[in-house]
Amino acid sequence: MEAKLIKKAALGDIVKKIAGQKPVYAPVKEGSKVHFKFLAKGESPFLAYANSVNAPKNLFFPQTETLMHYTKTARGNELVEESETFSEMVLFGVRPCDVRSFKLLDMVFDQKQYSDPYYVEKRERTTIIALACRQPPFSTCFCTSVGGHPAQADGADILISELDDDYLVEFLSPKGEKLIKLFGDLRAADEAALNRKKELSDEAVAAIKSHIPATEIKTWLDSNFEHPFWDSIHQGCLACGTCSYLCPTCHCFDIRDEAQGDDGIRLRTWDSCMYSIYSQETSGHNPRPGQKQRWRQRLMHKFKYFVDNYDAISCVGCGRCVMSCPVNTDIRKIVNDIAKLN
Amino acid sequence: MNSIEEKIREEAKRLLDEKKVDVVIGYETGTLPLQTAPCFITSSDEVDKLVWNPCCKQNLAIYVHSALTQHRESQKRVKPEDKKAKIVAVVARGCTSRSLVIHLQEKQYNREDLVIIGVPCQGYIDKNKLEAKVDGLEVITGSIDGDAIKVETSKGKTELSLIEVTADNCLECRFCNPVIHDFMAGEAIPVYESDDEFAVVDEFAALPEADRWDYFSAEMNKCMRCYACRNICPSCYCKVCFVEQSQPEWVGAGVNPSDNQVFQIMRMFHMAGRCVDCGSCVEVCAEGVDLRKFLKKLDKDDLDLYEHRAGAELDKEAPLSTFRENDAESFIFEPK
To answer: Do the chains contact at A332 and B31, CB–CB below 8 Å?
Structure first.
């Protein structure tokens, strides 16, 4: 691992330079909202951002993705796999919480036995440049409660940390090191810089004011699939997909064919357990008939089932669902309330 | 606590204590600054949760509809002698009461299933306007003091006037008081007679076609198809929405410009003569899609062509559920 320093003012241009060579997916400000988007030629990323409205998972796991084309012929169906091959890409400016989300998504999409080629290919061809949080971006951030850290980015190829006049750039993987020359003039980081990073990182941890007992509720969830508590959280829920669609770890999808005449495509789209048709069966029966059952599923999946399957909580504490829920359903409050039932 | 809030709580307590209603639907303080959440009070011990302030945004009529519909469904397989009635009380401002009128006109439930706690309303805080005022920064703390809002962001504290962040639909609202109610929590307030209520539509209509199309396409491209707009809308209560139908499939599942447009256009056209301009569809949208400009056009047509305002009068038939020989039809035969 190499640690280098660059002047703060130089970063924007470096990213612009990288974007001249390969596609860069980075935060961009549109109106008063920040989104991850591919940078246009000559466009600089928006560096002074807190975090984006949408999670960067869309790069590896797009909301709409064509899996294959098919044509009905006299000899049967002819299948043509989607032949788009991805060039090497750079994902720039990912916050540590969102970097963690990729490790969690890998557990689902990149298993030994079952591997999702669409996800894995894009993931492998992408270099992730993380931007540490000097301050927690929002008062709703709770990454430290779910195993994260505002200034560490396990899983990133390059980690950039804001110091006083410089950025400390740490090249964490061979993929990251390949980009060194695009960074131009780099100074080697001295002891003082590394110490300052440590100081600021501790400050960032201390500045996180939102905490939830995320690991303490598993035992309660294990034995309380039926409990009056589940009647108390869902009434205001609109059953929209905002929380799932903005969540960096939600990964449910639907697959369907869209045909026109003899030609068709097979699409994969995001899905949400908040929707009534998510669990609707062909017979008309719906095993999760109401929002109560759907909210229980959402909670259970994040804090129990995922832990059972992969030994990790499927939440990175970014706070997007808390901030964007149209009716202010707050997952932090729900987890806190469950902990009180223990 | 303001006097309206006090009266809402007293009335809610009385209704629950006297077993006049099973649930009171209102607003409670949220977990984030300047936010409220819908709340469902079933015991008079909890009435102190109820609040009333400019952070009360959502049109609660959709919750009345789902509570009563779900109850009706649950009673279907119950023996006649065991059937139970359910009566819902709701805190309703002008726009909410108009949505309730639409439900009643469309025979969704009966008037006696409902107790309306009416509130005079001077408008709510538009989250998009507030967000723009603080340049997209997070509001860390916020409080309302008379006509002023004090907000704190990472850049420090600022004070805004309530009026500059009040939603446009509220600034132009002619229904500050509920059109029907069983109880009024507070005095009716004078109605703000806006003389350019449709300025937003007229200005947009005056733009060249290409500009209008560009604006519309850009707005629709923001849509992530979470369906929050549809799900909060009291007039969107279909058991099965066309979006979820697969045989035939009216709208593709993919999030792309044409499917987004088809979804929004079809939803909006179902709002003809049924949109009360409560602004909830805009307020719930995480991406800030401007739906109001287009919905307001339907509102204008409703008024210009049929002298009708959605849900304004219980006894007046809605244009889509009645036919008169002299009905305007120029928009069919001579479309502009």
So the answer is: yes
Q: What are the tens digits of pLDDT across the range A208-224?
A: 999 999 999 999 999 99
pLDDT of residue A5: 94
Instruction: Assess if residue A155 is contained within a domain.
Output: yes
Nearest CA to CA, how far is B82 from chain A (Å)? 23
What is the pLDDT, as a whole number, of residue A255? 94
Instruction: List, in sequence order, the alpha helices (H) in chain A.
Output: 11-21, 96-109, 117-124, 174-177, 191-207, 218-223, 242-246, 291-300, 306-310, 320-324, 331-341
Same domain, A28 and A167: yes
Same domain assignment for residues A118 and A161: yes
In this model, does residue B201 exceed pLDDT 80? yes
Q: Are residues A13 and A143 in the same domain?
A: yes
pLDDT given at position B191: 85
A200 and A224: one domain?
no
Q: Cβ contact (<8 Å) for B136 and A33?
A: yes
Residue A253 to residue A29: CA distance in whole angstroms:
28
> How is residue B78 annotated by DSSP?
S
C-alpha span between A241 and A54 (Å, rounded): 13
Task: Please report whether residue A59 resides in a domain.
Answer: no
> Which residues in B lie closer than 8 A to residue A239 (C-beta atoms)?
231
Cis peptide bond N-terminal to B248, omega within 30 = yes
Q: What is the share, in percent, of chain A residues with pLDDT greater than 90?
A: 86
pLDDT for residue A86 is more than 80:
no
Instruction: Tally the domains of chain A.
Output: 2
Contact A246 B286 (CB under 8 A): yes
Which residue of A137, A242, A269 is in closest CB contact with B286?
Answer: A242
Q: Considering only residues 14 to 73 of chain A, which have any Cβ-Cβ distance to chain B shorter than 8 Å?
A: 29, 31-34, 50, 53-54, 63-64
- C-beta of residue B194 within 8 angstroms of C-beta of residue B174: yes
Say whether pLDDT at A162 is over 90: yes
Do both A245 and A193 map to the same domain? no
Q: Which of A29, A30, A32, A36 to mutate to test the interface with B (most CBs of B within 10 A)?
A: A32
- For residue A293 the two structure tokens come to 């059952």
Contact A241 B30 (CB under 8 A): no
Q: Does A282 touch chain B (CB under 8 A)?
A: no
Mean pLDDT of A328-340: 97
A168 inside domain? yes
Distance separating alpha carbons of residues A320 and A331, to the nearest angstrom:
10
Domain range holding A126? 2-52+81-207
* Residue of chain B whose Cα is closest to the Cα of A231: B40
CB contact under 8 A, B136 and A254: no
Q: Which tokens is A300 given? A: 């259970």
Do A168 and A21 sit in the same domain of this protein? yes
Residues of B in contact with A277 (CB under 8 A): 244
Residue A205, pLDDT > 80, answer yes
- In the stretch 3-62 of chain B, residues with CB closer than 8 A to chain A read 30-32, 35-40, 58, 62
Residue numbers in B near A328 (CB within 8 A): 30-32, 35-37
What pLDDT digit, counting tens, does each position of A112-155 carry?
Answer: 999 999 999 999 999 999 999 999 999 999 999 999 999 999 99
Give the residue, B213 or A79, on which the prediction is more confident.
Answer: B213
Length of chain A: 342
